[in-house]
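Notebook entry, cofactor series.
This is the third protein in the set we're modelling with a bound small molecule. For this one the ligand is flavin-adenine dinucleotide. I'm keeping the input format identical across the series so the outputs can be compared line by line later. Sequence and SMILES below, as received.
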Amino acid sequence: MKYLSYWHDTATPFADAQQGPVEGSFDVAVIGGGFTGLNAARKLAREGVRVALLEAAHVGAGGSGRNGGHLNNGMAHGYAEAKAHFGAERAHALYKAYDRSIDMIEDVIAEERIACDFRRSGKLKLASKPSHAAGLRAGFELIHREVDPDTRWLDKAELGAEIGSEAFHGGMLYGKSAMMHMGRYVNGLATAAHRHGAMIWDRAPVTGRSRSGTGWALTTPRGTLRAERVIAATGAYSGSVPRAPLAHFRRRIISVGSFIVATRPLDPGEIAATLPGNRTCVTSMNIGNYFRLSPDNRLIFGGRARFSAVSDQQSDAKSGAVLRRSMVAMFPHLADVRIDYCWGGLVGMTKDRFPRAGEAGGMFYGMGYSGHGAQMSTLIGQALADMAMGRQGTNPLDGLDWPTIPLHSGKPWFLPLVGMWFGLKDRLS
Ligand SMILES: Cc1cc2nc3c(=O)[nH]c(=O)nc-3n(C[C@H](O)[C@H](O)[C@H](O)COP(=O)(O)OP(=O)(O)OC[C@H]3O[C@@H](n4cnc5c(N)ncnc54)[C@H](O)[C@@H]3O)c2cc1C
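Returned structure with ligand:
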């Protein structure tokens, strides 16, 4: 088994990173080489803006190269919750922004000719308990009526054509949702940004930021560059570089581990017995699972598994064992199927599980997608590019307040308690 992201292992790495020292003067500097930062850089470079991107590790090293591969429309925290939180008009607009983000990815892929196996697969949200089916169905009726007619309810009997598991009690189908190869997309974005003129440095963690004339100087171990404006696109990894000038975000983002295993390629009989519908699937549990088939027909099966703020080989292996048990409980016929990959990454949660994008402390920022960012990050990247060019009106999160999390400065000491609370809710539901 490889303790490595399947997306990293099966995509051609970005090969055009700057080799020399970090130096020069730019209009905009972007910190972070995931979907958010890369699409901001791509858009800025296309518009003729002088842009530099600094990435601590390599392009796609964060969530963008480690996720489950789902481009799900609908919100992480639900439409009804968004209505209660922000009011009907804003919730409606936010829901539509998720739809738009997937359309935007499709456009970017076409514009930049990125071969990344994008497919409008649809997403199934599956009721893990009979008691969950009623709540899920009520949510479906509200969404279908008010904001997304491209949705459908499936009773338990109808699920047989979609999924080869007896574990579920009905499900909601989101027709607009999609899937793609995340490694090929993230490297394709970097290649496109570079082609349009962006300068991308990897292995260049930003460790300092200070005033320089009308702009900022960004310091890395490989040198310093100057930029008039700065975009922070560091998401769940905002705490990963010691001394990084990102404390504002560390106090507002909770970084939680999420973990994934991928089987060997399944044969046609196994595919038909497992996911004949070939959609992205998520379960209704708080500590739930998400899964889909890869382009080469592996089952990519993820979940929170453990409430850990660490993703390294040891932590990933422990979570992988938990995930394998969940996978076999759902699909007993896969009990002897080999697991080829096991990996994990950090998800950037906000307290209310809605993302944030705006300007703070002299930086534009977009993050906190709360496990639902593979699609929204492309749209927010574009909105951040607009903001850096002084254009308003494309940020769907404009004006949302973002208070600090009390007693939190970056290390989520409270995760085991949150895990116990969600576990209890799952048992009692
Ligand atoms: C296991 C897992 C499964 C997921 N599954 C899904 C899914 O199926 N669907 C979905 O919608 N979302 C999913 N997500 C979430 C999604 O991947 C993220 O929301 C999205 O990739 C965020 O992109 P980003 O560009 O904002 O951040 P990232 O991709 O995390 O990029 C941030 C980058 O900033 C860099 N960085 C940090 N600090 C510095 C510094 N000081 N200097 C320079 N660089 C720095 C990091 O190295 C990193 O590369 C998942 C996440 C994980 C971890």
